[in-house]
Fold this protein.
Amino acid sequence: MHVVVVGGGMAGLATALACARDGHRVTVLERDATPMPPSADAAFSWERRGAPQVRHSHAFLARLRNLLAGRAPDVLDALLAAGATELPFTANLPETLTDREPRPGDDELVALACRRTTFEWVLRRLVLAEPGVELVDGVAVTGLRAAPAAAGPPRVTGTDALDADLVVDARGPRSTSDPWLAAIGARSSPEELHESGIVYFSRFYRLLDEAAAPPLTGPAAADLGYLKFAVFVGDNATFSITYALDSHDDELRRLLADPGPFEAAALALVPTAPWRAPGVSEPITGVHVMAGLRNRYRPFVADGAPLALGFVPVGDAAVCTNPLYGRGCSLAIVHGFGLADTLREHGDDLDGFARAFAGFTERELVPWFRSAVFQDEQARSGAAGGELPPEDPRAFQQAVFRDGLLPAMRTSPVVFRAFLRWFNLLATPEALVSDPEVVAEVLAAYQDREHRPAPPPLGPATRYELLARVRGEAPA
């Protein structure tokens, strides 16, 4: 089968690799003219106008690392050789967790520390080395070709540029194939769209002495209500700091886009301050800003029938989640390998393939879309300084998450690992609240909330205090 993948980012490359290793001929069409850089560090300056998110922090979660270890170990080896590192979560337990005995499954709780550009550079090199794969860059696909259909959905036969047996849309979170579908007489996707309501800011740094990197034993991320922030370890002695705030907070939004206030904020936050202490690191980029972030689901089987045969979306073109939660790249690669697996099972039965792939998407990606929508709703309520109304059935969940789950994570090895498995996509969102032992410990922590000392502050208590720091109106 000839598979044409439109888009040469993470989802497109993963799909190309998995399909090629199943014996398919694959052509990747990439809109940006993106010749291969000579090294991972050079890839950090890659011109990727079609993928502005490459300049931001990325998480490569345990599910992705485990998939590579089991299905594409050469990719994992090449990433490590290029400077990525493995991050075993249970090797750096928080000091409050006194039970430090290893447990079954700990070997699965390992993520990857890597810049997005390094990961994509490694993946593209290996894709290009596969027999039967061609990557053509500088080609903008503008539509689909389709065979006339007497009844049922149209049969896609290629793009405007190339014939194909299967066309895969891997153009990312801002793409829409509705004009393409309309032009061939297909229905549009019944899209679900939820704005995240946040804007985020990232800046990258290089450690001056990698051996002197701050330890990762404490929280490297936190939510202060008015601001969320995190440190992301990268490859080759790099790391990044990211802030996220309400998109309507015009004052902080304007300030944090400037390197000076960005650095003042880093020094005001307990987890980030050691990374920006004198002599520890130096900036290697300016501040990158990204807005318009959303959760989006575009099903391609609706009312029991595929919208078109021989055409499917993959990765963010199908299911996009708020990047704040760090799931995008991991889910995109899971989706690409799932597409290849589904194609292997159904061969030339494109109707059966479309339905089965829609089922895979519903099982493996859509729960994380629903979870992200709910998390965003909670975050908006917290940022507004209020609670969900008591009559809202989610109000109790919100309170238990804040005053039960998070405190229990600091002292319970069971809850700590359950949360990590959820965070790393190794357990479904429902699994976190269906384990009786986890639920019992979380509820016990919640019921003890009035007697528990407050956790140590991780930054200024109020937005006004942070504003004073970043304006230089308060002592550092």
